Amino acid sequence: MSLSPNTHQNDAAAEQPVRPLGLLIAFLREVGGTIDDEKHHERLFLNRINEDGYEDFRDAVVSEWFSIKYSTAFTAAHPPTAQQLLKRSKAAKKTTSQLKLALIAGFLKLTMPNGKKLSDCTGKECIAFGGLFQKIGERVGPDKRIGDVLTEKQIAALVV
User: Fold this and answer.
1) What are the residue ranges in the chain where pLDDT is below 50?
2) pTM (2 decimals)?
3) What does the DSSP assignment read for 58-99?
4) In Å, what is the CA distance from 34 to each residue of 29, 125, 151?
5) Exposure string for 31-60, b = 16+ CB within 10 A, e = fewer
6) β-strand partners of 61
7) Long-range contacts of residues 108-115, Cβ cutoff 8 Å, at least 24 apart
8) Is 119 helix (H, G, I), strand (E, B) or coil?
């Protein structure tokens, strides 16, 4: 398929958004070569999108590039202060803690393989379940019930 300046200007395409990747794919099929020709292809492609009739594609390429690079460039132009980084770090830790608690919420009510709720299981039973339940059982001790010794928050600290 040969790419002409009017390739993208038929009635059906006029209603479609311009897709720079589609143009690049069609262009690479047209010019051939190998992946090692990247710099040569780049020069040819830049020449192509600067030809008359390719303004929509050129604008779309610039817009897409801008969207991809904007946050990086903005951060470089306006680097966060140490205080802002600390605030972000604290917010991330708080969110992580909230997510841990949300994951563990209702954990003590979980029905275990023996048919009992986790809170009613003994440490010995949890050790037998293995995995993260083994940690819980070891913390509680063999003869004590999980719900009598640990809160969901304490379980979260053990397993998450």
Assistant:
1) 1-2, 5-12
2) 0.45
3) HHHHHHHHHHHHHHHHHHHHSPPPHHHHHHHHHHHHHHHHHH
4) 10, 63, 62
5) eeeeeeeeeebeeebeebbeeeebebbbeb
6) none
7) 108/146, 108/147, 108/150, 108/152, 108/155
8) helix
Q: How far apart are CA 138 and CA 118, in angstroms?
A: 14
26-49 residue pLDDT tens: 999 999 999 999 999 999 999 999
Which among 130, 25, 20 is positioned nearest to 66, based on CA atoms? 20
Q: Let me know: does 136 contact 113? Beta carbons within 8 Å.
A: no
Q: Enter the tokens of residue 159.
A: 């397993």
CA angle 30/34/37 to nearest 5° reads 95
Return the SS3 of 122.
strand
Residue reference for tokens 């780049």: 42
